[in-house]
Amino acid sequence: MSDQQKQAQEPDLNQLRKVRREKLADLQANGKDPFAITSYDQTHHSQEIRDRYEELEGTQVSIAGRMMSKRVMGKASFCNIQDLKGNIQCYVARDSVGEDVYKDFKKFDVGDLVGIKGEVFTTKTGEKSIHAGSITLLAKSLQILPEKFHGLTNTDLRYRQRYVDLVMNPEVKDTFVKRSKIISAIRRYLDGQGFMEVETPMLVQNAGGAAARPFETHFNALDEDIKLRISLELYLKRLIVGGMERVYEIGRVFRNEGLDTRHNPEFTLMELYQAYTDYHGMMDLTENLYRYVAQEVLGTMKIVYNGVEMDLEKPFERITMVDAVKKYSGVDFSNVKTDAEAKALADEHHLEYEDRHKKGDILNLFFEEYVEEHLVQPIFVMDHPIEISPLTKKKPDNPDYVERFEFFMNGWEMANAYSELNDPIDQRERFRAQEELLAQGDEEANTTDEDFMNALEIGMPPTGGIGFGIDRMCMLLTDSAAIRDVLAFPTMKTLGGKDQ
């Protein structure tokens, strides 16, 4: 639409809004204020009437929803009502609802919320419908739905005004219904495996458990600076120390980082910890969980994302990070002995690194550059270098590497898991190394959490732990292109001092 067209349209929109407010004022003046109504007896949804039509035909039902279209034809009219489950046509006749009600109905606007009671029937054209016996205006819409003119096509506006997006685009509502089902299925699976759902603090003194910059704020009551959590890990491990052998939490975490199609500064993370198992146990759990959720939500274990099928039925491939880098770059880090050799290889392959980086950091850079994009089918990448895994147990036979895996699908990291480090002496050394990195300018490095260290000294059993990105899982299972498509209200840049 051109700027001239938009300018020409604006007065029309303002006039239409004015007319709607006048209609509301008239209703209120005549004792018919829709906003005075506090409840409505909704007995059925639209899709239920369609699904159970043979049973419901000829019976009285009561529906409620938003009027999305209206055709007035003299003494009888049709309208379309949209509710949570879909939409259904309603036949409104003057002789059925009464002359006064019909007169009011003709003044209703597209976007108004209405309740209709009537008989289920089929029109002459075969449309399953409701023959209205009564109709009630439940709320007056004072705005104009965008479809009236040119549709809600502006992506930025869709995210900012998700409520309009949900009204105008049924597939958006379907995405969020599926998201709810995904999270419910995760809970059912874990509860069935003996896990206990818990809650841990969001406001923390020490934001550890991940490599990320935290958001910081000030707590006035205690006059202390505190942070928003970047991970769930350290508090959940405290519960393992306390004897709660299987725990999980699904909650928001906050990372002060950029925005892109897979990152939002606040997102939903699920972490779980299981005593007396290791990262192999976490691999088995991941396979079983993904299969269960896909089957429950989609009815299949074959996921199609952006036209590419990913098969959850086959055993998930397992490969070490060293072997993956060798496979896709031709560089064999098992033969690399020193940091200098690793940096020389990075120079040869034009990979940028920092002076503080060690051999393990360089290996990870090769992995990100050469490997990740190829990991489309479900795969576990195992045995990461110790330099990038400060909370993970070393491999007994090769202490340069740790018992860690990342789960990949569609070239994305979907989960991250460890055999958890439970040696407090080793953990303190790892924290000390992290603080050295922080001093060298690594803003994502961890600092020593003394209370967590005290918990480890009390004694933590051998434990397997894993973190799942819930939003990416929802993206895959709903075929959504960006993380904003699965967040009801994603983070947006403020416009002109306030969101518009």
From TrEMBL:
Cofactor(s) required, per the database record: Mg(2+)
Top-level taxon in the UniProt lineage: Bacteria
InterPro entries: Aa-tRNA-synt_II, aa-tRNA-synth_II, aa-tRNA-synth_II/BPL/LPL, Lys-tRNA-ligase_II, Lys-tRNA-ligase_II_N, Lys-tRNA-synth_II_C, NA-bd_OB-fold, NA-bd_OB_tRNA
Cofactor: how bound: Binds 3 Mg(2+) ions per subunit.
A cellular component annotation (GO) from this entry: cytosol
UniProt: Mg(2+) 2 binding residues: E413
The species this protein was found in: Schaedlerella arabinosiphila
The encoding gene: lysS
Family recorded in the similarity comment: Belongs to the class-II aminoacyl-tRNA synthetase family.
EC number: 6.1.1.6
Sequence positions that bind Mg(2+) 1: E406, E413
A UniProt-annotated Pfam family: tRNA_anti-codon
GO biological process: lysyl-tRNA aminoacylation
HAMAP family: Lys_tRNA_synth_class2
Aminoacyl-transfer RNA synthetases class-II family profile domain segment(s): 179-490
Subunit structure: Homodimer.
UniProt keyword terms in alphabetical order: Aminoacyl-tRNA synthetase, ATP-binding, Cytoplasm, Ligase, Magnesium, Metal-binding, Nucleotide-binding, Protein biosynthesis
GO molecular function, one term: magnesium ion binding
Name of the featured protein: Lysine--tRNA ligase
Location of the protein in the cell: Cytoplasm
Reactions performed catalytically: tRNA(Lys) + L-lysine + ATP = L-lysyl-tRNA(Lys) + AMP + diphosphate
